[in-house]
Amino acid sequence: MRKILCIILTCLMCSIMPVVLAVDSTELQDRQKEVQEQINKTNDELSDLKMDKNLIHRGLNDGFSGGERKKNEVLQLKILEPSLIILDELDSGLDVDSLKIVSENISDYINKNKDTAVLIITHYPKILQYLPPDFVHILYNGKIAYTSTKELALEIEKNGYKNIINKSNDIDGND
Question: Which of 26, 44, 67, 108 has the fewest CB atoms within 10 Å of its CB?
């Protein structure tokens, strides 16, 4: 809850200031320090993502390009520090340079937060060059049809899904 509160304080500092002024000076100094630390962290994360610092003063994703939206999602995860991250088509809308920047930031986050679980949903294995997975699962007809390593994604890139689906049907005994 405190992490969300810090973000609210950062985004809504003007409207919260009258409430903050009603507390004793020690508590006020502590809150000001927390807000300043959150502002500094946000500015550092914006720099890491090579995002314009003025974007945080807009409404959420208001007028953002596809790449800016993806970078904004990564900014949010770095600030909120979740223990489970689900990235749905992270590579969609990103140019090659932005994909690398976003992937490096996610990788840095994962390395600093070892207990974080990450689920990447993608149609293209390019992102796996930057964020190598422990497992690759193929969904087919609403079920996990096949599980393997990163090499599975490379095989699909080279040969398509047909062989994988056929292997899955052979294992399950389906036609």
Answer: 26
- Amino acid, res. 122: T
Phi, psi for 110 (deg, rounded to 5): -65, -40
Residues 6+ apart with CB under 8 A from 146: 137, 138, 140, 152, 164, 165, 167, 168, 171
> Two tokens at 91?
């590579």
Categorise residue 57: left if φ over 0, alpha if ψ from -120 to 50, beta otherwise.
alpha
Residues 6 or more apart whose Cβ sits within 8 Å of residue 34: 6, 9
- Beta pairing, strands 84-88 & 117-121: parallel
How far apart CA 49 and CA 98 sit, in angstroms, is 8
Q: What is the pLDDT of residue 19?
A: 43
**Parallel, antiparallel, or unpaired: how do β-strands 143-148 and 117-121 relate?**
unpaired
| pLDDT mean for each 10 residues of the chain (175 residues) | 35 40 62 82 86 78 82 87 89 87 92 90 84 86 84 84 69 50
DSSP string, 93-134: T--HHHHHHHHHHHHHHHHH-TT-EEEEE-S-GGGGGTS--S
